[in-house]
Amino acid sequence: MALEKNENYFELSDENDRASAIEAQFNEDALEVARRKIAPETNPDFDGIHCIDCAEKIMAARLKLGKIRCIDCQTLLEKQTRFIAG
Ligand SMILES: [Zn+2]
């Protein structure tokens, strides 16, 4: 009976370790996403004014944030990225 209890204990702690590992991975992913959002985007095709995907003019407010895509293309890209990621 005592042995059975121990086995259960180890199983549980292993489960906790796994949960922690998944949590750590999740946090790293979230950090990476945040990092990418904060960092100004760059592209050799970007002329500093026009969206690199559809050549629409990007709003000045977006340019100041270092964006290289218009809202439409940015939204589309984020949807695609989310789709690929998971
Ligand atoms: Zn665009």
Keywords, please?
86 residues; mainly alpha; binds zinc ion
Provide a descriptive summary of the structure in words.
The protein is mostly helical and 86 residues long. It folds into two domains: 1-39; 41-86, no CATH class. It is 66% helix and 0% strand. The two termini are 43 Å apart. The model has no long low-confidence stretch (mean pLDDT 80). The structure holds zinc ion.
Short structural description:
The protein is mainly alpha-helical and 86 residues long.
Instruction: Give the helix/strand class.
Output: mainly alpha
Low-confidence stretches: none
Number of domains: 2
* Assembly of the depicted chains: single chain
Number of helices: 3
Instruction: Give the proportion of residues in helices.
Output: 55-70%
Query: Which H/E pattern describes the elements?
Result: HHH
